[in-house]
TrEMBL record, chains A, B:
One example GO MF annotation: metal ion binding
Protein name: DNA damage-inducible protein DinB
Keyword Nucleotide-binding: no
Keyword Transport on entry: no
Length: 159, 159
């Protein structure tokens, strides 16, 4: 275990920050028309359904892997979802699982290294920040899709 | 001064995280053709030049305000920039200013409240996470613009 240097955010606040982002992403999913969620894209990019599939394959499974120190390969879209409502249901399940697994993280864990998906060997705090950044990044793309569809996205600061 | 609870990231690592994102955003600016940087947009959104103007008006000025506890209103585009190279120059100036001002932050500062731009009264750590998230969000939009222009954006994990 490493000595803890002076640090700047508590686990509780970081979880709140993450779940705030996840709540916003959920609202963006909700705003997509069913058809466009699965079909609309720009410039050859993935549909928003595909982007959300990626996010679902990261957040909760990744945190579970971290908590259990169980290295598993990244596995996306293992279950075939065909309605937006199923994505929202998975999203809500992930929200609960994240809250539960977060409780199992100790303060020391954050600075320990974990080989996420057997590919990303970084301190756990960096892995978690990556989950959040990656979600914000893809959600930003979803905002453009919504705008292109003539739909006003939620305010970015709504959490 | 509040008691510091156990926390999960050091100021040094948070700065590195932020500047890593800023380096990636700089590469996205570089990839835009001059004309498209100022003119291209989707669905009535702002051009990438306008989005970068916003980011420039936040990052360094906001951190300076925090460090000096000087509440100033948000001021965007005070200087008229007409070439992409000028944006890159401002970006690099901001990089240096951020590094310098970061040194002046104490560990206690992060949990103190600051009324950013006279509008956002939050703990400083939350303000800083907001700067990063907001940049990732707008850069994600820039990725869609690049794709729509047939230009491949950098890998998201490149920092």
């Amino acid at each position: 275990m490493k000595t803890l240097a002076a640090q700047v955010i508590t686990p509780e606040d970081l979880l709140k920050h993450w779940q705030g982002h996840r709540a916003l992403t959920r609202r963006v999913i909700e705003l997509f028309p069913e058809k466009d969620f699965f079909e609309f894209s720009i410039g050859g990019m993935r549909t928003f359904a595909k982007l959300i599939e990626e996010l679902l394959a990261i957040a909760s499974p990744a945190l579970k892997g971290i908590v259990n120190r169980e290295v598993k390969p990244f596995a996306e879209g293992e279950e075939k979802l065909i309605f937006k409502a199923q994505y929202l249901e998975k999203w809500d399940e992930a929200t609960e699982e994240i809250n539960q697994n977060w409780e199992k993280l100790t303060i020391e864990d954050f600075n320990e290294t974990f080989n996420l998906f057997g590919q990303y060997e970084f301190p756990i705090i960096q892995n978690i920040l990556y989950f959040i950044d990656n979600e914000v990044h893809h959600r930003g793309q979803g905002y453009v899709y919504l705008r292109a569809l003539g739909i006003e996205p939620p305010f970015f600061w709504e959490r």
